[in-house]
Amino acid sequence: MPFSRTRTGCFTCREDGYKCDEQKPFCGRCIRLQKTCKGYGVRLKWQTPQGIPKSKTAKGKRQSKSSNEVNVVTLRKAPANPGVTLSPSCLMPNDVNPVDRYLLNHWSTTLATMVSMVSAPRNPFLVHLTPMMGHSTALRSVLCSIAACHLAILRQDDSLHTLATHHRLVAVSSLRQTIMSESPELSLAAVLMLQVSDRLFTIDSGVDHLSGAKAIISRGSPNTWNGSRSSFLLSLCSYHDILASVSRGTSPVLDFDGDFPIEGMESMKALTSVLRIVGQISRMRGQDQADLDAQGYAIMEILNALDRPDDATGDVGYTVQAYKHAAFIYLYRVWHNRGAPHVSSEHARSCLAYLNRVPVNSPLVSAQVWPLWTAGCESIDCDQRQLVRDRIDAMYEARHLPSLRRIKQDIEEVWKIKDEQRKLIGVDNVDCIKAILRYRQREADLT
């Protein structure tokens, strides 16, 4: 029978008005009724730019809603950037308690180096985000949540998961209260780190953080997004947007894919060029065959014109070549829905070879998940598949990020589906992204 709404059940049961058994990752009722379980946690609701500020009466009604459902209201013109610096007081505010101080130290000394493709001291997460936390409770709380999640895995301590959830709730609540008044840069940084948290720690929040980021960007003045910090934030947004377009099987949300070097670093321009092409391939989905052919041939020509393999040196060069071969595989799948044993097999082999030239302790490994997924899904022979397993295992041992274990499970699932298809009809017409969306009812963690 219908049950009163709860604040801890899955979103599907709460919307239906039924009691939820809160089974993870999908509740028993949703599994039994074959419904899409929308998960647990906190929801952000982004209003359209035409949103009208609520009256006092409406505000009272809004406050009566579930505390787990947070409305982020329309952005107004924000004040000038507070001008953060690298002073010790900014890096670690005086009012931070000892536990949070420990979490933020773990972020600065360990996690920031895992999420960036650039080593210290030029690591832009350290250069830009860490100083910003002194001016934003939301950003500081997100970083504490990420650190607590990671430490919970390292220490096998469930109480740290509880602490991570607490900080996430604080972050969302603070973001709701300050998004109209604080610098758009601070709000964008907090939203992007919520996106990073969802992907790295397999949090299926059901929140479209990238749409929220787009809203923040569009409401800032042109002068808001000048400078190295803005370039870093916009590039981070573009990077996640393009790879999310792959995992969702849609076009990118933003229109400036590839306009900013990855992580705002000029040394990443070559890799940014390939990423821009990946965004163009995503936009090919749903077009008629004539347009597909025209764009497909044009993109093939661009990819072939990129740096020769003989020119690839160092971790960046090897990663660029891996992305190039992964882009070819992605192109053939979107264009012809064709995979191995097509020419994609050769690109998969070359992609994996370049990835394995990069040591697992290199900062560039943080960019390897998408090409590893793309080439891994197209691998056929046993040795090649074992190479993929070994690579992911080595990456996990170096980083202990749950997304790596889940991506390995997803690749194994895709192999099983593809092998069955080849046995039945002799060819592979399985889109690995659509397979995960259909059978796992979520997107793959490609960042």
Return the average pLDDT rounded to an integer.
Answer: 82
How would you sum up the major sheet?
2 strands, parallel
Question: How many beta-strand runs?
Answer: 2
CA-atom Rg in angstroms: 22 Å
Overall 3D form: globular
Percent helix: 55-70%
User: Numbering strands along the chain, what is their spatial order in the largest sheet?
Assistant: 1-2
Strand content: under 5%
Query: How far is the first residue's CA from the last residue's CA?
Result: 42 Å
Q: With helices defined by DSSP (H or I, 4 residues minimum), what is the helix count?
A: 19
List segments where confidence is low: pLDDT < 50 over at least 5 consecutive residues.
1-6, 47-90
Structural class: mainly alpha
Order of helices and strands: HHEHEHHHHHHHHHHHHHHHH
Primary descriptors:
single chain; 447 residues; mainly alpha; two-stranded parallel sheet; 19 helices; 59% helix
Can you put this structure into words, describing what you see?
- By secondary structure, this protein is mostly helical.
- Helix content is 59%, strand content 2%.
- It has 19 helices and two strands.
- Strands 1-2 form a two-stranded parallel ribbon.
- Strand 1, helix 3 and strand 2 form a beta-alpha-beta unit.
- Helix 15 packs antiparallel against helix 16.
- The radius of gyration is 22 Å and the shape is globular.
- The chain starts with 10 loop residues before the first helix and ends in an 8-residue tail after the last helix.
- The N terminus is likely disordered.
